[in-house]
Amino acid sequence: MCGIVGYLGSEKASDIILSGLTKLEYRGYDSCGIFFHDTDNDRFITYKDKGRVHHLVDDFDYQYNNHLAIGHTRWATHGKPNQANSHPHFSLSQRFGIVHNGVIDNYLELTTKYLADVPFSSETDTEVIVNLIDYFSKTLAVEEAIRKTLSLLEGSYALLIIDIVNPDILYAAKNKSPLLVGVGSKGIIIASDVMALVGYADHYLPLEDKSVVTVSKTENQYHFELKDIIGKPLPTTMLEMNIVMEDIGKAGYSHYMLKEICEQPSVIRKIMAMYLENGSSLPDKIIQHFQEANRIYIVAAGTSMHAGFVGKYLLENIAQIPVEVFIASEFAYNPPLVEKNPYFVFISQSGETADLRSSLVWVKSHHYQSLTITNVPTSTLAREADDFLEIYAGPEIAVASTKAYVAQVAILLLIAYQLASRKPFDIHVELSRVAVAMDAIIDRRDYIQHLVRDKLVKHNCFYIGRGLDYFTCLEAALKLKEISYIQTEGFAAGELKHGTITLIEEGTPVIAVISQKTMNHATRGNIREVQTRGAEVIVISMSDIHDVTDQIVLMDVHEYLAPLITVIPTQLIAFYTALILERDIDKPRNLAKSVTVE
Ligand code: M6R
C-alpha cells in the first residue's frame, strides 16, 4: 500500500526519492508525489498527481540542486485518486509539508475541535495532521507541536514532515505503519520499506510505535535523534543492511514474478542450509511451545492463509497436533473460543499485514504465546510476536506471492517433521528431491506457455482437487485471478457437483490437481463429470499416479511434500495467461503487496 521516502544529506535528494518511489512501486499505489527544497533559489517545489512513478520521473525537471525531499506513493483510502488527494499535503499557511501512510480514525473529531475554520483542499485525513502541527506550532516549538499532534491522533501513521522555515531538518514519526531510518555515508534516508533504503544506507533502524525522529545537519554531518512521544530519548541500535541492489533487480527476467517462480528451487536449498544442515535446527523454544500447546491457531490472509491450510494438514497428519486456520480479517473481529494452552502462529510474507497485526494485538492482550513466520525479520509482526521464524525466500517484489508461499509451506513442514515422534520420511532426501522436481518443471515452462495459449485464456476457470491438492487449488485460483483478472475458483473436487457444476459449459477450463494416491480415483471421477458437460480439462499429476492423457506430469516426491511441487505449474499457468492478456503482471490493478490497512 502507500509508500513514503524522505532524505536529508549531501546527495541530490530528488534522485534518491524518485529511485526510492520506484522501488516502492511493487507495494501498489494509484498516485505519487515529491516535495523538495530547491537549494539555489531557497524555495520548495512540489510535483504530485494520479498515475505511475515513471510519469513523475519523466516529467521531473532535473536541474534543481536539492538536499532535502520527501516522496509518496498513495493507495487511496480517504478520497479518490486525483491530484488534490495525492501527497504531499500542506498546512493552510504552507509552512508544513507532509507525507503520510496509514489511516487516522478520529480526523473528523479533531477537525471539529481544532480546525473548524480551515478550508481543506483535499478529502484526506492527512491534511488534518499537517494543519494540527501548524496550529500547535503557533505556541509550541516545532518538535513539541508534532508531539502534541501525535498525542491526539488515533489510528496508524508513518509520517515525514518538512518545515519550510528550516530546510536542514526532516521530521518523521510512526505508529502501527512501518517506518525505518537508514544511515549512509552521505545522509539519512527514512522510508516505509527497507527496499527504498537499498543502495543508500549501510545500517538501518526499524522504528517502534509512537517514536519521533528529527534528522538534522551540523557542520556537513547528518545525524538523527530518536525520542518517544513525550520527548524521552530512545536507544538507536542499528542493524546492518543485508540486501544489495542485485537482490532487488530482475536479473534478466522479463518480470519479477517469473524471476521469483524460477528462484524457488534455490529457496528450498537455502531453507535446508539454514534449518537442516551443519547441526542447525528450529529453535528449541519454538518447538517447546508447539509441544506444550493443546491447539495451534494459525492466522493469515490470502496466499499465506493457503500455506496455513497446508500447514494444518501437515501438523495434524505428521505431528498429530490439532490446528485451526483463521482468516486474519475475521479473527480480529470475531476471535474463537480458545483452548487451554493455545499457541498462535501468524504467517505473513511481509510481516506488516494490518489484519494480522490487529489479531496479534488481541492475542497479546490475552497473554497468549505467539509465533510469526515471515520473510521480513525486521517487520512489525516479527518484532511483536514472542517467537519468530524467517522463511529465507529473499525479497519478493511481484505482488503475486510465489516463492514466499513455498517457503512458508517448507517451514511448516519442517516444524511438523521436527515435532513428529515417528519420522515418515527422510527430510533431507525429500526436500532435495523437491528442489530437483521444481527445477524440472520450471525448465519445461515453454511447454506450459503453449498449453495456456491453446486451452486456457477464457473468461472463467476452475481448479479442482482433494485433500492437500484442494489447498493447492485455492492458491492456484487466487494466483490466476489476481494477475489475469479471469474469474477462477478453487474447489474441493467432490463439492463441485453440489451446485457449482451448473457453471460448466462447452470449453470451460477445469484444471485438476492429483498428487495424493488415495484420492486419484475419486478426482478422476470428478474429471469425467465435468468433461461430460463440455469442460476443457487439464490434469496436473505426479508421475507414479499419472494417466497417459495427463498434460502436466511432475516428478514424484513424498505425498506430504507434493504441495511444494504441484503449485509451480499453477504459478506458471497464471503468469503465462496474464502475459497473453497483456496484464500488468508484477503490479496487478487494485492490489498492494503489503496490505497495511484493515
Ligand atoms: O504479506 P502477507 O503474506 O501477510 O500478505 C497476505 C496477502 O495479502 C497476500 O498473500 C496476497 O494474497 C498475495 N498478493 C497473493 O499473491
Characterization of this structure:
This protein has three domains: 2-247, Glutamine Phosphoribosylpyrophosphate, subunit 1, domain 1 (4-Layer Sandwich); 252-424, Glucose-6-phosphate isomerase like protein, domain 1 (Rossmann fold, 3-Layer(aba) Sandwich); 444-585, Rossmann fold (3-Layer(aba) Sandwich). The chain has 598 residues and is of the alpha/beta class. Helix 9 (302-318) links the parallel strand 15 and strand 16. The mean pLDDT is 93. The protein has 18 helices and 24 strands. The strands form four sheets. It has an eight-stranded antiparallel beta sheet with strand order 3-2-4-1-10-9-11-14, covered by helices on one side. Helix 7 (264-275) runs antiparallel to helix 14, helix 9 runs parallel beside helix 13 and helix 16 runs parallel beside helix 18. The site of 5-amino-5-deoxy-1-O-phosphono-D-mannitol (M6R) has 16 residues, from helix 9 and helix 16.
